[in-house]
Amino acid sequence: MKITSSWLKDHLKTNVNIEKIVSTLNNIGLEVESVGSADKNNFFFVAKIIKAEKHPNADKLKLCDVDIGSGKIVKVICGASNARDGLLTVYAGPGAIIPKNQLKIKVTNIRGIDSYGMLCSESELGLSDESQGITELDSKKFKVGSSYFKNNSEPAIDISITPNRSDCQGVRGIARDLSTAGLGKLIDLEQIKLKTNIKNPFKVILQSNSGCSSFAHCYIEGIKNSESPKWLKDKLIAVGMNPISTVVDITNYIMLDLNRPLHAYDADKIEKKVIVRASRKGEKFSALDNNTYSLEDGACLITNEKEILGLGGVIGGENSSISLDTKNIFLESALFDPVKISKIAKKLGINSDAKFRFERGVDPNGMEYGLKLAAKIIHKICGGKISNLIISGENNFKNKQIKFNSDNFEKIIGSKISPAEIKKILNNLGFKLKESKNIYSVTIPTWRPDIKEEVDIVEELIRIRGYDKIQLIKPEMDSSKGVLTGKQKLYRFTQRSIANKGFMETITYSFTNSKIDSLFGLHNKSLVITNPISNDLDVLRSSIFSNLLIHIKNNIHRSFEDQKIFESGPVFFGSKPGEQIAVIGGIQIGKIYRKNWLEKDKEVDVFEIKDCVYKTLIELGIHEQDLTVIQESETYYHPGRSGKFYLNSNKQLPIANFGEINPKIVKELDIKSGPIFGFQIFLNNIPFINKQNTEKKIKYVVSNFQKIERDFAFIVDKKFEAEKIVNSLLNVDKKLIKKIRIFDVFQGGNIEKNKKSIALNLLIQSQDKTLNDKEIDELSDKIIQTMQKSFDATLRS
Amino acid sequence: MDEILHLEKDFKSKIDQSDTLHKIELIKSEAFGKNGKIGELFKKITTLQGEDRKNFASNLNKLKDNINNLINSKISLFEQKEINKKLSEDRIDITLPGRPISFGKIHPVTQVIDEVTAIFGEIGFSVAEGPDVENEYNNFTALNTPPHHPARDMHDTFYLAQNKEILLRTHTSPVQIRTMLSGKPPFKIIAPGRTYRCDSDQTHTPMFHQVEGLHIDKNVNMGHLKGVLDYFIRKFFEVDKIKMRFRPSHFPFTEPSAEVDIGYELKDGKIVIGEGDKWLEILGCGMVHPNVLKNCKVNTSIYQGYAFGIGIDRLAMLKYGINDLRSFFETDVRWLEHYGFDPLDIPANYRGFSR
């Protein structure tokens, strides 16, 4: 909602300056977005290029960071050769119309990057024929952020009116609030006595389910419609509205002034019998905006028997519209159902000023006054004869009554309020009071549909008194409760544990490209977003890998060959609330060593990623002996180079998986470098360790007896996995065998084709004595036997 | 006796003159080796008697020790020299780079969530969570925003079903509903998390982050709300002098409602929080609307309280001078490297937020 200081003074007797008006508006909850010209031709600002670099995807274009004032930096793509760091030039923001070609500036994507406006040449600005390069301005004469073109209209105060304050969609409502806040006296509305000298020939029939509860109208005959007088045009232009013709401008003026939408019809284009009814599905309607809409049922229509004249409270019809030739008019001031209006306008995608106001609520008691005022001004400017007013439907609007206990003010706000202050504030806002001790019976004016209960009155009082008067109560330190749950601690710890292994944390959208996601996850139709922001962000992700790989590819294009990135966040397996799990997933690509004088170049391998996961799991407090790794694959991994970690014998829920991303997928994604390695840790499957630190440490037991090492090499079938071999050997004598290390795995040579040699180093130590040769030999024999029995292994000679 | 003195003089001079390890080794064997000169003299002891024998033996032993020490110290001198020589030759360029190290980083949003958690944790808040996919009731209706309420238009909502029953939460406020429905008052929680709106331009991304706050108890009033937010802002921005402004506003789920602005100024195009004369909106808050409490089965004659919602990405931008919101979610490794935090830089009250 835009107002000007002079318009405000039509309703408010005050001498205060605009700064005071702005600060008071902010203080009472009418937030000022900006103060400045609302003239639509004014989107040109003095701006400074902070940085101009080559567009990554186009040789002749530059990508500029442009300071447009107030610390706002925007990205603008520019083809001018003189665009350079530090240059002061003219910036046209989205919405601007370029004088040379009347082109409207929009945010446009130029070769993959969004450009937020345009830097203009003198020729484009209509200043000269100079079209080589953008305008260069002298920094001594121009200030960054200032408007480039001088403008003569009064500055408009742009107020962001919250949806509850429909009364402030009219200048008078704002004036009333300012008056209550002490800025001046609210000027009484003039009493209107219309001279009506003809009979209203129209008959309006209101159907009961039409969505229109009341319809006031009059007829004006013999007017001369033309361009509006200067005062009216200036008023409208100053708040950003285009003047059209006197009649239309007056209806707009009253809408902006009193929050009272009106509609004028060319009376010669419509029949005298007007029926207000609900629409039927499939009806077609040609509106003023040159669009033809196909209607659903339930919309409120203003009709003649044969045709539709308007979509009530939303937009008028094209066939009954006012033109400069219009001689006779039918003027409507009605009440429409806010919910019906909201539904229909949303469905049809229409945003009109009238719709906006009806949706939020208008003062029913202003219906008749607005109509009279319009008739009066039209008569004054355009001449003609006014008919009698007719009101169809309801015309008796009762005020709401609310009980207010002033003790509740203190209870909610924390300080007291005096009866005098209550009366002063509420009376000035137009509320009427009956007092009985601390209980007030408050009569709510009909222009305040937002005041529904006691707490709303509390808000009115504190809003006008000022939030700065609320006494601040300092919080007390309190560490009696735990801040994080076990799961939350685990999540946070894992993030930092992974980052500490050289991975960069990223955050990507929870949605992704369905084509890419289907390579990794479920093919679940319920994850499809009905109204995606773009086609490549059309589903909730079912895998953490989808976005990570998209971004890995982008970074390769930025020439980063070696990358380690990870994300922690939700992935979804259904569209019901809660059908999501927390996953930490990482991707590594490239080399571990590259161009290093100490080490030869070394590619990432699957063990690099396995170690990372393993180490993290141990750091999370999982005991080494509880972890099992199994060579088991998901389709998105290389079947021979991937695995899963399980806890104990629970083979249902892996706590992590890792591996080389399936080369088929890498090819599908058109990522040229590879291989790519990834891991996922499923935090929901990890039981959090909720032990006190004191319980975590078990008894300290060490042996000081001699340690013995023995090496063995066995020939085993290829299929036997190292972890199984190690586990069964550890079981040969848990007391004596402390550790088994695998120091060689070999295939080929003189070893049979389907066999491999595995070399083990055993660390043997007793807890209570030094072992003699006999005991060691016995243990060795047992080991060899076990290998034979369990794995059909022979000792390699 | 002369023999001993002579021998001593002879060896001393030889030892003096020896200039290699080899030469001194030769002298050593000349003195003490098989048929060595000093060994030979010991044989002579048996030929002597009485005092002579005693004196001779004593002097000879002295000679032996003396020469032995001289030889050994000379040997050790040469050995030292040799080691020093070896060490001085065995030199590498220690300024060469070692094996490459990859440093991981924590995303600024994660860091800010941890900072926010540390601050509110100290004044009795614990962390609650809710799902990203919500039903329409928790996201809107229970929060006193019935269907066709104009406030719903201000949230450009992503839907997962044609009937608009299932959606991506547009704010973290549904966690208020979940928290209150699943427990009994008092409640004192914060809920950081992802939020979604169907909006994408220079200053909006379709996903962003919020932290919700909710404190419901007996006698919690607007003064407490003001105190908690004042405390938070001072702690978070790590500045004592900060201007804060409470402005009336409107949210369907709070009454009275407020927005909070903080003062800032621009220095070299960068926002500096503190005493400037410009205002920046950073959060919305208010006293929880009685209808919301009723929807959550909280007895409004006993309990009341406040709620707030803060944009986390906004906080990160302001505190760490990040200009572009969109860059948060673009995974440009250069950006992550620049704005990311060391993983060991864990925000904690006991040591402050900054290292």
Q: Mean pLDDT score of chain A, rounded?
A: 91
Under the CATH scheme, which class of the largest domain in chain B?
A: Alpha Beta
Pick out the low-confidence regions of chain B.
none
Q: β content of chain A, as a range?
A: 25-35%
Query: In angstroms, what is the radius of gyration of chain A?
Result: 39 Å
In total, the number of strands of chain B is: 10
Broad CATH class of the largest domain in chain A: Alpha Beta
Helical residue percent of chain A?
A: 10-25%
- The fold-level CATH name of the largest domain in chain A is BirA Bifunctional Protein, domain 2
Q: What's the overall geometry of chain B?
A: rod-shaped
Largest sheet of chain A: 7 strands, mixed
Number of strands of chain A: 43
Name the largest protein-protein interface in this structure: A-B, 114 and 102 residues
Report on the structure:
The complex is a heterodimer of chains A (797) and B (355). With 797 residues, chain A is an alpha+beta fold. Chain A folds into five domains: 2-38 and 154-186, Phenylalanyl-tRNA Synthetase, Chain B, domain 1 (2-Layer Sandwich), CATH 3.30.56; 196-393, Phenylalanyl-tRNA Synthetase, Chain B, domain 3; 400-466, 2-Layer Sandwich (Phenylalanyl-tRNA Synthetase, Chain B, domain 1), CATH 3.30.56.10; 486-685, BirA Bifunctional Protein, domain 2, CATH 3.30.930; 702-795, 2-Layer Sandwich (Alpha-Beta Plaits), CATH 3.30.70.380. In chain A, helix 6 packs antiparallel against helix 7 (353-360) and helix 13 (514-520) packs across helix 14 (545-557). The model of chain A has no long low-confidence stretch (mean pLDDT 91). Chain B is of the alpha+beta class and 355 residues long. Helices cover 41% and strands 21% of the residues of chain B. Chain B has helices at residues 2-17, 21-32, 37-45, 50-89, 108-121, 136-139, 150-154, 174-181, 222-237, 290-295, 312-320, 333-339, and strands at 126-127, 133-135, 166-168, 187-196, 207-217, 244-251, 254-267, 270-273, 278-288, 304-311. In chain B, strands 1, 4, 5, 6, 7, 8, 9 and 10 form an eight-stranded mixed beta sheet that branches. In chain B, strands 2-3 form a two-stranded antiparallel sheet. In chain B, helix 2 runs antiparallel to helix 4 (50-89) and helix 3 (37-45) packs antiparallel against helix 4 (50-89). The longest helix of chain B has 40 residues, at 50-89. Chain B starts with a helix and ends in a 16-residue tail after the last helix. Classes of the chains: A alpha+beta (797), B alpha+beta (355).
